[in-house]
Amino acid sequence: MASCLAACADLDLNPLSEGSSENWYNDETEIEMSLNDLWRADFFPIDDVAWDDDWLNRNGSNEITLGTITSKSSIASTRWTALYKAITRSLKILDALDKGKASGVSEAKVQQYKGEAYFMLGCAYGTLSMYYGDCVLYKNPISLNEAYKATRSPKSDVLAFAYECLDKAAEYLPETYSGQQIPTKGAALGFKARFSLFSGDYQTTIDACQKCMNLGVYQLHSNYKDLFTTTSSKELMFYFQGDLSQKVGIGMFSCVKNFVIRKIGGFSNQCPSLELFCAYTCTDGLPIDQSPLYNPKDPFENRDPRLAYTIQPFKTKYSKDYAEYTQSKMDGTFPKKYPDYITLGYEYNPSPYATTVYEASSGKMVLNNDSKASNQHSVYNGILLRKYVKDDWANYNNYGLVSDNIFPYLRYAEILMSYIEAKNELGTITQEDLDKTINLVRARAYNGSGIQYPKVTLASQSELRKIIRMERRVEFPFESVRYRDLLRWHIAEKSYNKPMYYLNREWSGNANWNGKTGSESNRTLSSDFMVLLKNWDNGNFPIGGIPPIDKDGLPDLSGMQNAGYITTFYMMGFDKNKNYLWPVPADDILVNPNITQNPGY
Amino acid sequence: MWIVLFSFLCCVNMAAQEQRASINLKNATLKDIISTIEKQTTYRFSYRNVVLDEHRNITVSLNKAKVSTILDVALKGRNLEYSIVSEKSIVISDKQKTNPNQGTSKKRITGIIHDEKGEPIIGANVVEKGTTNGIITDIDGKFSLEIPSNAVLDISYIGYKTQEISTSGRSSIDVKLLENTQNIEEVVVIGYGTARKVDLTGSTSSLNGDRIKQTSTPQLSRQLQGQMAGVQVSRSTGDPSSSASIRVRGITTMSTNDPLVIVDGVPGSIDDVSSDDVKDIQILKDAASAAIYGSRAAAGVILITTKRANSKDFSMTYNLEYGSDVATTKPKSANAVEWMTGFNEMRYNDGATSMFSGYSEEFLNKYNTNHLTDPDSYPDVDWMSYLKKTAHHQRHTFSLSGGTDKLRTNFSMNYYKSDALVEVKDYEKYNIRSSNDYNINNWIHASADINLIYSKSITPHNSIWSYMYENSLMPAIWSDGEYAEGKDGDNPYACTKLSGQTDGRGYTVHGKLQLDLTPIKNLTLTAVAAPNYYFYKGKDHAKKYKVRRINGDYIYSQGYASTSVTEARNDNHSLTMQFYGNYKLQFNKHSISAMAGYEDYSYEWENESAWRSNYTLDNYPYLNLGPADNQYNSGNAGHNAYRSVFGRLMYSWADRYMLQANIRSDGSSRFAKGNRWATFPSFSAGWVISEEPWFKKNGTVNYLKMRASYGQLGNERIGSEFPYQALLNFGTGYIPNASNGVADIVQTAYQSDYAFNNITWETTTTYGVGLDAKFLRNRLRFTGDLYYKKTENMLLTVGFPSYFGYNAPQNNAADMNTKGWDIEIAWNDQINDFRYGASFNLSDYRSRMGYMADKQSIDSNKITEEGSYYQEWYMYKSKGIILNDAAMYDSQGKKIAVLTNNDKAGCIQYVDANGDGNITASGDRVRLGNSLPEMQYGGSLWAEWKNFDFNLSFQGIGHQTVLWSWPTTPFEYQTYSCPKVLIDDHWSPSNTDEQNAKAKYPKLTTGNTTNVYAASDFYLFSGAYMRVKNITLGYTIPKAITQKVFVNRLRMYFSANDLPALFDNYPKGYDPEWNRNGDFIMSSYIFGLNVTF
Prior knowledge:
The complex is a heterodimer.
Chain A: H1 2-6, E1 19-20, H2 28-36, E2 55-57, H3 63-66, H4 74-98, H5 107-132, E3 135-136, H6 144-149, E4 152-153, H7 155-172, H8 185-198, H9 202-215, H10 224-227, E5 236-241, E6 270-272, H11 274-279, H12 305-310, H13 322-331, H14 334-337, E7 342-343, E8 346-347, E9 356-359, E10 364-367, E11 406-411, H15 412-426, H16 431-435, H17 438-446, H18 461-475, H19 482-488, H20 492-496, E12 499-502, H21 527-537, H22 558-562, E13 567-571, H23 586-591
Chain B: H1 3-10, E1 20-28, H2 30-40, E2 44-46, E3 58-66, H3 67-74, E4 80-84, E5 89-94, E6 106-114, E7 125-128, E8 134-136, E9 142-148, E10 152-156, E11 163-166, E12 172-176, E13 187-190, E14 193-196, E15 204-208, H4 209-212, H5 220-223, E16 231-234, E17 245-248, E18 260-263, E19 266-267, E20 278-284, H6 287-290, E21 301-306, E22 315-327, H7 336-349, H8 361-373, E23 391-403, E24 407-419, E25 426-441, E26 444-460, H9 464-469, H10 492-498, E27 500-517, E28 523-542, E29 546-548, E30 554-556, E31 563-587, E32 590-615, E33 631-653, E34 657-668, E35 677-688, E36 701-715, E37 727-737, E38 742-750, E39 762-775, E40 780-796, E41 811-831, E42 834-849, E43 856-859, E44 862-865, E45 872-876, E46 878-881, E47 908-910, E48 925-927, E49 934-945, E50 948-959, E51 961-963, H11 980-984, H12 993-997, H13 1009-1012, E52 1020-1022, E53 1025-1036, H14 1039-1042, E54 1049-1057, E55 1082-1092
Parallel strand pairs in B: 2-5, 6-12, 18-21
Antiparallel strand pairs in B: 1-3, 4-5, 6-9, 7-8, 7-10, 10-11, 13-14, 15-20, 16-17, 18-19, 20-21, 22-23, 22-55, 23-24, 24-25, 25-26, 26-27, 27-28, 28-31, 29-30, 31-32, 32-33, 33-34, 34-35, 35-36, 36-39, 37-38, 39-40, 40-41, 41-42, 42-49, 43-44, 44-45, 45-48, 46-47, 49-50, 50-53, 51-52, 53-54, 54-55
């Protein structure tokens, strides 16, 4: 028995496959592992594509576009919680560095690590200030008891601290890096510009942007089209990228099946909105309701090239070269003549008559799955995503539905556009300012199109405001920019208090329809589908007519609904008295009554 | 006692060969003599009705003498006499007294006494109660006795339970004596030893193995449902491989409420024991009974004793059971036209301008006609019809048992197999148990047990839930028999059939070696080593497959466009070691037992998994055949340990007054050094009032015992292995690298949970009183318990401010008070050869939170805060459905408070509890009552007549408030199905106000699910129900027939288990116990056979 007692269970155990933070932050490896944890997309929250008016999510509505968000909604609590985790973790790293916990780390490294931690801290507080306004602000690690008694600090204090952190980061961080991304001086300044622009602190924006521009390390990618499929660019200031082998995709790239054509098994159930479609100016730089170049029966004609780089182009019956286009599919010259009309191996043709499409691999016409002619669930508003689409999306099934596209979280064009907007708002804008910013952005957009870009010239503040707002919309769709822009311009109450439109839901009723009507049809077609055919025949597909565009660049499509071209998908909603700020999570208020709530929640 | 005389007179020829013994003792007591004889012969002495003196005044020296010779010497000079009743039995009694029953009216009663197997019992004592008038049975088990006309007979035999039989109005009786495996007095298993049942002072419930076999499931945990007071068993799915959750006296702590399961003295898992192997189950409900198990016993203890062999009793049994299983009920979904009509209405509610914006009126009108001629283009699929109507299960048990004086051995093998309503799904379990008892010599006894379990469960990649969300417009099978695309390739039926399966196999080995040493009389030293090994091997083979679209194209199915293989290998190992000593002493009327011991336990686990994807070959589920560039793996490990020392003292006097004290010190690796050890005492007392001399036992009340107890228990089971350490999690990060164009995969480190360094034991103090009583000649039995539990330093996750940046761990943060009671009432009687009985149990408790330092814990719709129930409902209060647009304004014309800007007619109106004009989650959620079941009950009725046996048992919940939730959000993604009960009864824009006022559910919408599906009392309803758990009718073929084929006993039975719930308010199609995504709860219809050779 004595020998058994000697072998009795040992109670002094320690974790086997985990570490303990008590004895962490001891060397470069441990600090770098902790910093690595910060560069994750949930600490740099990406606004969902479905939250803004550039997007139609056929899967239904969400609490942001409906304005039904409450203090119990996970949208609000997830971001709040994630950002405070980032704050706590960065403060812990800073605390360890300040206390000299780590041994054998050079002064230069310590400085860079601090810079990285301040960068995270500044970004987190800056982001919090944009969405929640007043926030709990702590600049050093706090105890649990302090946390239970904390109060919200005014937004201005939060923002001031964010600036302070980003300034320190800009001071400590290098201008460039080689290989693996680390935050840079420019990125710190860029985020400072973003946060200050959001709160209308224009001079700070101008200063930060100016410093960024002066660095000389960033430049616009030569070609707008390639920017979103490239893997590196001097335009990218801070970005994320997934990994195919690990089946990890960032943001919308975590399920590209949603955007892939039905022909190859995708859903194409999320797509650009008709409003975005109408926001692109014509090649003369004028909005479509003013430009003589706009052809409502072929809305792709004479448009800003970014339209066809963002939304998959297709031909309408009224396209100038429609006959030639149709012929090329017969004689096999199609892929060569019209490469942009092919996506992931197939022609994209949403025409309600198009029962077949061109298959690039065989040169044959095969059954179309992306048209109401043969598929009930084909793209609901007729327009399909083009931006970001890479050929390897066709193999999405092998990669767990993800793609490894880079997500351009902060790119240099935003610095240029923020600079010019701030200048315009302050009324200090010059032609030189325009030429070194928005005109560079436009020039790049037209680069490779063979068309001379329409130069922006000095105009009244309100005229320029409209130009800048429309330019931002078409330059940055699906980059987590638009939702914030709607909030900071205070036009969300306009853009959301109206219907989300799409096409009539009716289809031919059968995948084996022969594409003919009347007595030649092999199917009885419903009257609603006949309306869709009529709209196509009359050149009113997908929108028809010319929508008026208001001073903020927002198109009004209600006329098209009245004319029967489009219909309401659902009513959006926005309460201007509350929805400009997000709710503070209810549970925090219950836990600590000192925490106040934003108005209306 | 007259028996002695009678035995000499009647049964001389029966006392066959009198045995001999050698004895050489000086200054011995009578007991020494008896024990010497017992060791050398098969005789066992019974001296229950006399007091053996302790005088050391006997000196005998006889070699191979007849026992009667020895006894004549030993009893000389004492007022005692003896009777050699049988080969097994010698009764010592006071010398003959006069018969007090002279002069009353007499009758002659005859009868037969036999055992459970029908064998006659020779030499059983049949005594007129309260007298010495008696006789013993003859070689055929028969007797004849003259008694007063309404006398009661006491029938007893060594090794059997004594029975009292009323003879009024009867002239012959047929009595079956039940075996009592512990000689002389009923002994029950308690922690680290045994105790006489009469000495128990705590609150326990027990269940005989025979009662457990009634219901048929491979998981023992499920078989306890409704069987015992204060033991609530709940399940949420009909899946045969899943176990049920057991709560002893409800939920009284935030952390693990699973009771500690002790199998044959060693911590184990309840579902590792096959019901056929169970001899009995004891549930220790209060701290006094459970205290000896210390730290892990706060939530009660389940003691399972498995069957062991009897000596000289060789038998072989085979049990067969075959059953058909059907769902108790199934939910129905809207059919195609109903769904499309509902969809149109939903879209209208959400902003569409027409009532036919999704499907045109003409399309709808013609749909059903078109469906008949062209079902492929116009599908109307009842997805439930792609589940099997009936599942089947079978169970076989084979056991061998036998023994000699030196070795007793028992072996059993159980096999269970069942399929499920979902195709492919299959479950198999083997349970092999062998127990062996060795009598090495007079002072060494050993036992060696081994238990092997193998289970294999094949599960398809989708569950019943996936059949429920698919709407009726999604085609399953084309008319030519090919698999259709369903929703964009998501066809649950094709997925079940074609996507491969998960094959999980569990291998368990439990071993136990026990050594009992008796170095000196009355002292037993025990050493136990019980290792446990578990190994899990899982193989998930996900195969790519295609389904055909309506246009003839084939597409890969959703989620199965590439083939992958995932292998999991998990193992764990634990070792329990125990060393304890028991000392028992009985003299005069004192009975003392003391126990002291040590136990330790260590546990370690390790999990690994590895997978490859994008296989070219679909039919080779092996890792080496997968492409090397798509491989992944992961693993983790952990461990914990505890040590304990404990002791117990029990004392009773004259079976009348009992005292018990326990103490246990536990140390756990979960706490930091300074907080590691804690000591928990308990005390209890009992008073058997009916043993008092002044108590009239022959009245209405035959037995009365009062119990009281106080005890403390600790709890350290808080999930996390090292809660006091600030744990660093390691993760994987993806950081873009411009130089190679891909993301670098980097290791990351972060602390996600806050750590309370001083976290320590949670302590539950329980005060209990209980009453056991028997009435009406012991036929009516009552047990009642009242208790109060106070849990201090409760380990609980309190609400952390989320802006603190850490996940909240558990901490010693609250007090909770629980009050409760349980009662059990049973009636057993026999009328001639009709034996019957009934029992009923009922229990209830309420747990309310005490001091919580102003903290709260909110778990979605439930709150735990000072003064609230534990996990009280915490939701909006509703005012019903907003009837029409006018109802959006109050009588003053002011707009009502709304939850969202989108609240309109048809939504639910909520109460603005704080009066701020808005409905908000932080201001308007209120406490809405207990979320836990109240008034749980169960019971049974049984009867035996001739060769027939019958049982009916039931179980139910008397009161509970349940939050209604749909299996899926109706119409979600514009494709999810809509439950029929919602389609049939909701607020609709096309209804009149009168119709809408009666609507049960709000409007159809996906645009404001925030409002219509918000958790509120709108969806609270009474979840009370009752269920018949079992009805069995059995028939035992007369022995005369079966013995011709050497079968001792052959019984056949039919039974029905788990019938559909009764008296419930659940919407049609929803079983109260079903969790909305698991397998349906099943009713089983069973045929069974028991054969004993």
